[in-house]
Specification:
The structure is a single chain. 67% of the residues lie in helices and 3% in strands. A hairpin with a 3-residue loop joins strand 1 and strand 2. By secondary structure, the chain is mainly α. It has a two-stranded antiparallel sheet with strand order 1-2. The chain starts with a helix and ends with a helix.
Length: 242
């Protein structure tokens, strides 16, 4: 089975689930019934497989090594960031992010050490979903993708571009090596979220709603570079509510 087939499989599963009607819970989450079922599936997969593996990885991996693995994949991600910087017309940020990648790849020994952050070259987050948002495309309904988690229709539409611009995809031809690197990146990322997931489990009365609202707010903030415009509904509620 090809890498592309395995990557788009969650989207095909989502399309099949979307055929069943659900009662809309709110305008942002009209498919809440379906989304909660996929969320429950993802949560079970995480609790029974991904989380234990990540805990084991964190337990046996020395902190400096774990940090170097995180830095390595973050450095590769900076190439995707530069690509989307250019698509959004952020040429100054693109130059900064490319400089960050260059310093970390050379002085940082292939990205194992994040020297750029100490040179006032901060990490940015850009993907094609954000690029579509910067071009004016609305996020559309909230969806939960099998295995991949929270998304929107706009962000889901951007996933193929993100995959094809991923340096792992572009640079590794051998399937075994590719999936080994992909698995390591996934486990490393999940290990970095262990503390946050414990806080959410303890604090959130409804983890599904908490994750949905946090995701939508974060994505809106990222699209507008931390300065989202005031919602029109806010003024409507304040001044025009009867």
């Amino acid at each position: 089975m090809s890498r592309l087939t395995l990557l788009i499989l969650p989207l095909l599963l989502l399309a099949g689930c979307a055929a069943s009607p659900d009662r809309p819970a709110n305008e942002q989450d009209p498919w809440e019934g379906m989304n909660r079922k996929v969320y429950a599936f993802n949560d079970a997969f995480d609790r029974h497989l991904l989380k234990p593996v990540s805990q084991g990885y964190k337990a046996i991996t020395p902190d400096p090594v774990e940090q170097s693995v995180t830095n390595f994949f973050s450095n590769l991600d900076d190439l995707t960031v530069v690509f989307n910087d250019l698509l959004q017309g952020k040429f100054g940020q693109a130059a900064m992010d490319f400089s960050r990648f260059t310093w970390n790849t050379t002085v940082g020994i292939g990205g194992l050490f994040d020297v750029a952050s100490h040179m006032q070259l901060p990490k940015h987050e850009e993907d094609f979903g954000q690029t579509l948002g910067a071009w004016g495309l609305e996020p559309g309904p909230y969806v939960v993708l099998p295995f991949l988690g929270p998304s929107t229709l706009r962000d889901t539409a951007g996933l193929p571009v993100d995959w094809y611009s991923d340096p792992l995809w572009l640079g590794i031809e051998d399937q075994t090596t590719y999936w080994s690197a992909y698995a390591l990146r996934t486990v490393d990322k999940r290990a970095g979220l262990l503390r946050a997931s414990r806080i959410m489990d303890q604090a959130a009365l409804d983890p599904y709603a908490f994750m949905r609202d946090a995701y939508l707010q974060q994505r809106r903030s990222l699209v507008y570079d931390g300065e989202p415009p005031m919602e029109d509904d806010f003024f409507d509620d304040m001044f025009f509510e009867e």
